[in-house]
Design goal:
alpha/beta; 5'-nucleotidase,  domain 2; six-stranded mixed beta sheet; 28 strands
Length: about 525
C-alpha cells in the first residue's frame, strides 16, 4: 500500500521556466521524541528548578512547534520546498505517555504539522492497540514497509508500506523499515509479521520506480549502523533519514558521533545518512539538491539545538501546562537527594558499567534480598535518562524508568545467567539496550571476541567475598518483568527460568525508595563490569 499526500497549493506552485532546473528539497526531521512533551534539561530529564530559573531548558513540544513553523514558513515564503518528517518513537518516556497513552503525542504532532512518520518500536509498547490509536489519530500518513499487517484486524490497511508526497510539483517517494528485533524490544501482536529490512526496502524501491517515482528517501527506524548498510546496499535510495539509535550527528561539533550527513559509498555514487539524536533536543535540517534527471547532486545540512534561543510557542506551552496539571503533584514530589550526577547516558549504560546501572541494580537486589535473591540484572536500554546532583523528584526517577516495569524474581542456573550475559554484550556495535547492568555479580567482556564467547571471569557474591559462578548451581535472580519475560533478547530467562514472579512493585518506586533509604545517595563505579 502506498500513501499519497498532496501538499498545499503554495508548495505545489512551480513555474514552467524552472521545471527542468535543479530541484531543492528541505527536510526537517526529528526521531525518538519519547514523549518529551515538556522541555528537558541537559540530562534529557524534565527541566525543573534551577534550570528553569536560568533559562537552560531544551526542546519540548512548544519549542519544537516554534522552530519547525518558523523554518517552514520562511522557506516557503522564499519559494523553497519543505517537508517535515518523524522517524519514529513518539511514544514512551515521560509521565505524559504514562498518563495519556498517546493522546498528548498525537495532539502535539497534529498541531506542529508533520507530513509523514515512520513507525518506531515503542509505538508497539501497548501492543497493536497503541499503534492503532496513533495512526487513527494523526492527520498525516504513517508508514513501515517491512511490516506485514494483513493478519491484524486492528492495523490492516492503516499503516502504509510506502508513501508519495507531491512537493513543489515533484513526486517524492518514501520507503521505510522498522527494526526486526521489535518483537524483543516492544510488544507487537503475534499477528504482526516482520520482514527482512534490506530485502523489503529493495522491493519497496522497485514498486515506487515502477510508478515513475525517481526521488526516493528512506524513512527508517533501525539505527545508524543499519542505516549505513541500507544506504550502501539498497539501490535507488537517494538519502536515509533514520532513528532508533539516538545517534548524535553534526556537521561541525567535535563531540559528534558521526558527520551530518554521513556519506556512504553506493556503487558509483554516495548516499547521505542523517539522524537527529533524540528527545526533541535537536531538529535536523537536510537540504537535498536533485538534477533535472532526478539524480541527487548534493546534500548538506546540520542539526539545530533547540535551546533558550528558541522561544516556546505560548499557546502550545499553555496547553502542555494544562495537560501536565493532573500529574504535577507526583512529578514534583521530592523523593531523594543525589550527592553527584548519576549517569544514565545511552553511550555508557549500553557499553560499560555506569552509575545509573549500579543504582538500579543495587536497588532491585536490596528489595529482593530477603527472598533468597543474590543477583540483579537490569538492561541498559531500560535506563532512559540521567539524574542531576541535588534534590531528586519522582518525575526525575520516572524519566529514567518510564516503562512501568515491575520487579520480577525467579531462579536460574549459572549456565542460564552466562547465556544472559553473553546476550548482553552481543550487540555492542549497535549500542543495543540488552547490555547487562548488574549487582551481586561481576564479569569481564572482550568486545573484540566472537559473539557468544565475549564474557569471562564471572563471579557471584558469596558471603563477604566472591566466588566463580557455577553452571549447575541455581541462583535467585531479580530483574524487571520485561527482561524476565524475554525482552531485549533475554529469552533464556523465559524458557529456562524457574519459579518466576513478575508482579512486584513498580521499578521506579523501588529505586526512589532505595535512594531515600540510603540517602543522600552517592553514585559510584566499583569495577563490577570490566571491559577488556
Amino acid at each position: 500500500m502506498t500513501f499519497r499526500f498532496l501538499a498545499s497549493a503554495a508548495v505545489l506552485a512551480l513555474s514552467v521556466g524552472t521545471a527542468l532546473a535543479d530541484y531543492k528539497l528541505h527536510v526537517l526531521h526529528i526521531n525518538d521524541f519519547h514523549s518529551r512533551i515538556e522541555a528537558i534539561n541537559k540530562y534529557d530529564s524534565t527541566c525543573t528548578g534551577k534550570d528553569v530559573e536560568e533559562n537552560k531548558c531544551l526542546g519540548g513540544s512548544a519549542r519544537l512547534f516554534t522552530k519547525i513553523n518558523e523554518l517552514r514558513d520562511s522557506l516557503k515564503a522564499a519559494g523553497e520546498n519543505v517537508i517535515v518528517l518523524d522517524s519514529g518513537d513518539q511514544y514512551q518516556g515521560s509521565l505524559f505517555y504514562t498518563t495519556y497513552k498517546g493522546d498528548a503525542e498525537i495532539e502535539m504532532m497534529n498541531r506542529i504539522g508533520f507530513d509523514l512518520m515512520a513507525v518506531g518500536n515503542h509505538e508497539f509498547d501497548d501492543g497493536n492497540e497503541g499503534l492503532a490509536k496513533l495512526v487513527n489519530g494523526v492527520k498525516f500518513p504513517v508508514i513501515s514497509g517491512n511490516l506485514d499487517l494483513s493478519q491484524s484486524a486492528l492495523l490492516k490497511g492503516k499503516v502504509g508500506r510506502t508513501a508519495v508526497l507531491d512537493v513543489g510539483g515533484q513526486k517524492i517517494g518514501f520507503v521505510s523499515a522498522l527494526a526486526t528485533d521489535t518483537v524483543e524490544t516492544a510488544s507487537p501482536g503475534a499477528d504482526v509479521i516482520f520482514q527482512d529490512e534490506i530485502e523489503s526496502l529493495k522491493a519497496q524501491v522497485a514498486d515506487l520506480e515502477g510508478q515513475g517515482v525517481t526521488k526516493i528517501l528512506a524513512l527508517t527506524h533501525v539505527g545508524y549502523v543499519k542505516d549505513q548498510e541500507i544506504a550502501g546496499t539498497v539501490a535507488g535510495v537517494d538519502a536515509v533519514i533514520g532513528g532508533h539509535s539516538h545517534t548524535y550527528l553534526s556537521a561541525s561539533d567535535p563531540k559528534r558521533q558521526g558527520a551530518y550527513p554521513t556519506w556512504v559509498a553506493a556503487g558509483n555514487s554516495s548516499v547521505p545518512v542523517v539522524t537527529a539524536y533524540a528527545y526533541g533536543k535537536y531538529l535536523g535540517h537536510l537540504v537535498l539538491t536533485f538534477g533535472d534527471d532526478g539524480a541527487l547532486k548534493f546534500a548538506e545540512g546540520d542539526v539545530m539545538l533547540l535551546d533558550a534561543a528558541v522561544t516556546p510557542n505560548a499557546e502550545i506551552e499553555a496547553r502542555v501546562k494544562e495537560l501536565g496539571g493532573p500529574i504535577e503533584a507526583l512529578k514534583t514530589k521530592i523523593v531523594a537527594e543525589a550527592k553527584a550526577d548519576i549517569d544514565g547516558g545511552r553511550d555508557t549504560c549500553r557499553q560499560q558499567e555506569c552509575t545509573m546501572g549500579n543504582l538500579v541494580a543495587d536497588a532491585m537486589l536490596d528489595r529482593a534480598k530477603d527472598q533468597g535473591v543474590t543477583i540483579a540484572i537490569q538492561n541498559g536500554g531500560g535506563l532512559r535518562a540521567s539524574i542531576q546532583a541535588g534534590q531528586v523528584s519522582m518525575g526525575g526517577v520516572l524519566a529514567v524508568l518510564p516503562f512501568q516495569n515491575t520487579l520480577s524474581t525467579f531462579q536460574a542456573k549459572g549456565s542460564t545467567i552466562l547465556k544472559a550475559l553473553e546476550n548482553g554484550v552481543s550487540q555492542l556495535e549497535d549500542g543495543a539496550g540488552r547490555f547487562a547492568q548488574v549487582a551481586g555479580l561481576k564479569y569481564s567482556f572482550d568486545p573484540a571476541a566472537p559473539k557468544g564467547s565475549r564474557v569471562s571471569d564471572v563471579m557471584v557474591r558469596k558471603g563477604d567475598g566472591w566466588a566463580p559462578i557455577e553452571a549447575e548451581t541455581v541462583y535467585g535472580v531479580v530483574t524487571n518483568n520485561y527482561v524476565r519475560q524475554g525482552g531485549d533478547g533475554f529469552r533464556m530467562f523465559g524458557s529456562e527460568g524457574m519459579n518466576a514472579y513478575d508482579f512486584g512493585p513498580d521499578l521506579a518506586d523501588v529505586v526512589a525508595e532505595y535512594m531515600a533509604k540510603t540517602g543522600p545517595y552517592t553514585p559510584a563505579l566499583d569495577g563490577r563490569i570490566t571491559r577488556k
